[in-house]
Amino acid sequence: MQGLAGAAACGTVLASSGRAGPVAASPYRPQFFDAAEWAFLVAACDRLIPADASGPGAVALDVPRFIDRQMDTPYAHGAQWYMNGPFMAGPDNLGYQLPYAPRELYRHGIAGMNAHAATRHGRPFAALSAALQDDLLRAAERGSLVFGDVPSATFFEQLLANVMEGAFSDPIHGGNTGMGGWAMLGFPGARADFMDWVDQYGVHYPLGSVSISGERA
Amino acid sequence: MKRNIARCLLAVAGLVAPILPASGARAQDDVVARGEYVAIASDCGACHTVPGGAPFAGGLAFHLPTGTLYAPNITPDPKAGIGQYSEAEFARALQKGIRRDGSSLYPAMPYPSYARMTDEDMHALYVYFMRGVKPVATPIVQDGMTWPLSMRWPLTIWRWLFAPDPQAVRQAMAARQFPDPLVARGSYLVEGPGHCGACHTPRAITMQEKALTAQDGPLYLSGGDAVDGWRPVSLRGEDRTGLGRWSEQDITRFLATGRMPLGAAFGGMTDAIGHGTQHMSDEDRLAIARYLKTLSPTAHTVAGGWTYDPAASQALHAGDVSARGARLYVDSCAACHRTDGHGYPTTFPPLAGNPVVMDPVPDSLIRIVLEGNTLRATRQAPSAFVMPGFAARMDDGAVADTVTFIRAAWGNGAPGVTAADVGRVRRTLSPAHPPASLPMN
Amino acid sequence: MSTDARRLDPVDVVIVGGGWAGCIMAKEMTEAGRSVVVLERGSDRSTASDGAYPASIDELEGNFRYKLFQDLSKHTVTIRNNSRQVALPYRRMAAFLPGEGVGGAGLHWSGVHFRIPPDDLRLRTRVIEKYGAKFIPEGMNLQDYGVTYEELEPFFDRAEKVFGTSGEAYKVNGQVVGKGNVFSPSRSDHFPLPALKDVYTAHLFRKAATEAGFHPYSLPAANASRQYVNPYGAQMGPCNFCGYCSGYACYMYSKASPNVNILPVLRRHPLFELRAGCNVLKVELDSDGRRATGVTYADAEGNTVTQPAELVILSAFQFHNVRLMLLSGIGKPYDPARNEGVVGRNFVYQNVTTSTVWLDPKVETNQYVGTGGGGVAFDDFNSENFDHGPLGFVGGSPVWVNQAGVKAIAAAYSGGPPGTPRWGSAWKAGMIDTYRHSLRIDAHGTNMAYRDVYLDLDPTWKDAHGQPLLRMTFDWKDNDIRMNRYVVDKIGNVAKAMGARRVHLTSREFGKPFDTRQYQTTHLGGGAVMGTDPGTSALNRYLQSWDVHNVFVIGANAFPQGTGYNPTGMVAALAYWAAHHIRTTYLARPGPLAG
Fold it and tell me: So where does heme c 3 get bound (chain B) (predicted)?
């Protein structure tokens, strides 16, 4: 019911303000991540989806905010995963076997990333150059780093997945601000009706994106 | 000639239960069954039953211009309901608007229409309520009407002035000529137990219906004031805003299923169908349809009938959303109602040529956009369909633009609306329907 | 446990699970005048709440938070690739996405609605006829269903009319009537609705496949091409290609589901009762274990309740059905070492790989336009439509473009062509190019049954009610890999005919074990298979337990081997077929159905 709850909350806000539209762009204050974690998150997002000629980056799309808000959902508490013990390691292809929900993965993972940054380069991840940050991210992706009992690849996959989600999910969840992710992709969003277009083959779809809340791009 | 009509009327009156063996216990059971049918035709449940509540236990709120009135418990419970009413007191309440204690009933209870009902029907109804309805011991408190209208004695004056005398109206009815017996039956049902005019006829400042029968002039069934926030449209022959383009078949289908090619039921009509007309016999629905088709358009009809104009459809189909509200329409409405405005009749109603869309007063239209509504399942059409509400997705300006678009498009040619119109309606919205009232399909 | 369960009044029929199979059986049993209780462990669901527009048009919730899918925190399975491994819990939704809640997976499925090829029903017989018995690889448990296409045809037809299936027939009553699948068997009637329109990529694929010498046809889809009222009187809206089929309840009421197509009528039947939030724990048997007396379930408040019944129908989905049989002691559990027992035997899956074709940048493929069951396929390499003799494998694949609507997060996950980084600017450019100018072609193939691929109960892990989880022992076999690679190679011909700028053919690889982390399909089959030999099947050809005659087990568990097509059309036809025989024979004279 998280989605509906979110929609209802947005509805309340919208009803009060009398106008649908982006939330005012005051700096977001994270609820779950502490300052160090938040700094890592912003920096990592910026590297995973950088701003470039193709379109906006993850930071402009408010992906960090998305992830922070997700941490307060049943998903992040692992409510949807089978979390009964015992927990046994096994071949990777048999899937995730750790006792950690996403919230814990982020705690462990970000701590690990910052530790490795400090060990290798004497500074937290957020303070590194883009090139060094990319190197470290690739190392994590390969599983070369050690974060206690959390393989770095596991954390990396969690992070990457949530970054993609944040950049491309409906703005109602806090990311994809201004539907910038959809716009660069050419995805029409929550209109969900292509009856007039299904057989106009190869034609460029002229209508922009629309979000669940009715925001238009 | 009069003799023939009388014979015809007698036959009509007997249509509900044409053959009843005159035996004792069986006769009583048949009266209960007949009474149940009359209660259906009179649609008592639509007002005296809250959705999901016990039948006839009351509690439904009526938001009238003067405040909120709650329909009372009319189950046979002696304390909370009408268990202590005699048949004469019951008839007096229904046909004259006098409560058992002698005080007068608000005309929200359509006793001016029920005055026309026959003694046979009244008797059957009484027996049904006393023997066929389960008693419910919950009383209904009347605390929503603002003073001074919460005092009842002025209602007595109203009743004297505006409530017709049952004997007189029945004599008048017997004297009328009808083109055929079905029209006569339809007239009885609509002007009498069906009390359709209670919603579909405008009321005067003094709250009485401006016409109680077709003979009272073209205001009868010309479109009512808002009932519970929804505005009943004209049932007369207007091409744009009435039933001018509806056939008898369209009307009977609407009364049976709430859906037909030209539109779908919402608001109070959903209940009138759900509790009432869907359970009528085919012949009675046909009688109503035929009668309605005899009603001429009102004089103040918008000049010219409705003809489909494809300009808006062509623009949207080509991706041109430059018209006011067009982009909003495509973003939120076209999926179901289509860029050509035709929708998918019986699933998602058309907006092109829809009387509700062209109604000079746009309140119902605005309301359904804000609140959404459910096209309920009926016996003949077991699937329900839901239109979502867009109050959360659109602000008042957006709703105004969208509604303006559909009122203008496809030949509808009705005037636009303003954000202020929307705001006014939005403030009257009731709380969102609880999930339990959503259909399970 | 049953000693302290609350015992309710008996009903005629108790049905476990409110998905397609359960709702069909419930409808049929009520029509036969029997009182029916359906026990569904998930919540009650409806389009109005779960498919509300536009709130439900939410890719994050629908496809990534698995809102309408099974709650794994309470019930899941364990998986291993072979018997030497320890099976580990399937903790997160990935490879397959079972349903939960009224409507089951039928509320959020895609809509492809096939009739199984006649030869797939008697594949063992056909293979031996054509290539000899030695052609069957060692260890492959190839066996026939025991029922023929001709026997099922009226029930396939019935199911299509209930589902409002859109498609174009090739042969009706032996006469060629249209441009449907030239390999398909003759039907007794046309599809109830005409085929859906081709989206652009399907259009291109149809043309290219024809040029490549194959025989394309429109996928039969339970996504209504028009408004439709089914034989039960339930009404469907028409599909507008919104792209939110798979993972969602259809806000247009266009996609068939038990909720839209059966329940509006069933719910109002006086003999029908639906109880949501009731997790069935086991089937109760009499003292000699040959007859079921009812089922025991945990209700929404956690109470244990026993519902007595004359007839027990398990329709909880393929592997849940098998698990309930194992937990209840119905039939002998399969022992692969001794090759004895039948419950859990012949567990099969489907062998699906997706290749990508990039077209000229001037071509916009508009991948967001789509519908779950819509697309274009060819069957030239499916079933026994081609000569396997020189190829040395059993099975085959239909090949298709089924553009169900690719949404933004999915596009981001897919990224760019092989070799493109998975993140960063290069990823972004590749993703955009792929999303706007490419299309996907699936080889949707068979997975054959093997002696050492099976289901049983896990010795370690338990569910929320303290019952053992089901254990899956599964991996890809050479036969399947070779089949897949052969068929995928043919896709290259189509891509070439399409004028592809770039092609990435994805095949199954030798030595690479089944990976639970990647979505394959939710078309699992077998484990409690139907057949004519109680030594190799758990159910007779009417889906009746050989051991407990008043238990019928309806679902893809009945499939003795894999099929290239999606399963639901077959599941529904089998449900109607079983119901027919229950109604015409069993109810009059309860006992093992013969012949």
Answer: 333, 336-337
Q: What is the pLDDT of residue C151?
A: 94
How far apart are alpha carbons A133 and C423 in whole angstroms? Answer: 13
We report the CATH number of the domain holding residue B398 as 1.10.760.10
Mean pLDDT of B367-383: 87
User: And the tokens for B86?
Assistant: 């005699």
Of A1-5, B153-157, C96-100, give the range with the top mean pLDDT.
C96-100
Annotated binding residues of B for heme c: 44, 47-48, 196, 199-200, 333, 336-337
| Mutant choice from C428, C463, C476, C509 vs A, greatest count of A C-beta within 10 A | C428
Tell me whether residue B20 is in a domain.
Answer: no
State the amino acid at position C371 in one-letter form. T
Burial class (CB in 10 A: 0-12, 13-18, 19+), A205: middle
Q: Note the pLDDT of residue B244.
A: 87
Q: Are residues B359 and B236 in the same domain?
A: no
Q: Answer yes or no: do C253 and B381 touch at CB < 8 A.
A: no
Alpha carbon B278 to chain centroid distance?
13
Q: Torsion angle, CA of B119/B124/B125/B131, rounded to 10 degrees?
A: 150
Asked whether residue B305 is domain-assigned, the answer is no
Please give the Cα distance from B408 to B398 (Å, whole number). 15
Strands (E) across C286-338 are located at 292-298, 304-314
Judge if B272 and B321 occupy the same domain: no
pLDDT confidence band for C5 (50 / 70 / 90): low
Residues in chain B with CB shorter than 8 Å from the CB of A11 are 391-392
Which residues of chain C are within 8 Å of residue A52 when distances are taken between CB atoms? 425, 428
pLDDT of residue B176: 86
C54/B332 CB distance under 8 A: yes
Mean pLDDT score across all residues of chain C:
94
ipTM of this complex > 0.85? no
Domain locations along chain C: 4-586
Contact present, B49 and B56 (Cβ < 8 Å):
yes
CATH code for the part of the protein at C4-586: 3.50.50.60
pLDDT one-digit tens code per residue, C15-45: 999 999 999 999 999 999 899 999 999 999 9
- Mode of pairing for the β-strands spanning C304-314 and C345-348: unpaired
Higher pLDDT residue, B207 or C589? C589
CA-to-CA separations, C444 to A93, C195, C256, C352, C488, in angstroms, rounded: 21, 20, 22, 4, 10
Is residue C139 classed exposed, middle or buried when 0-12, 13-18 and 19+ CB atoms within 10 A define those classes? Answer: middle
Q: What pLDDT digit, counting tens, does each position of C312-360 carry? A: 999 999 999 999 999 999 999 999 999 999 999 999 999 999 999 999 9
Neighboring chain B residues of C46 at a CB cutoff of 8 Å: 438-441
Binding residues of B: 44, 47-48, 196, 199-200, 333, 336-337
H helices present in C51-186, as ranges: 59, 118-121, 123-131, 149-163
- Distances in Å between the Cα of A114 and the Cα atoms of A36, A52, A111, B186, C15 are 9, 26, 5, 82, 55
Amino acid at C514: F
**Confidence class for position B26, pLDDT limits 50, 70, 90:** low
Q: Do B353 and B272 fall into the same domain? A: no
Q: Which residues pair with C295 in a beta bridge?
A: C283, C307
pLDDT digits (tens, 9 = 90+) for C562-594: 899 999 999 999 999 999 999 989 998 999 998
- B158 in the same domain as B30: yes
Report how far apart, in Å, the C-alpha atoms of A150 and of each of A77, A78, A109, C348 are.
17, 16, 7, 33
Residue B286 sits in the same domain as residue B317: no
CB atoms within 10 A of CB B114: 26
> Structurally, how many domains does chain B consist of?
3
Q: What is the average pLDDT across C279-304?
A: 94
Instruction: State the residue range of the domain holding B81.
Output: 25-141+149-166
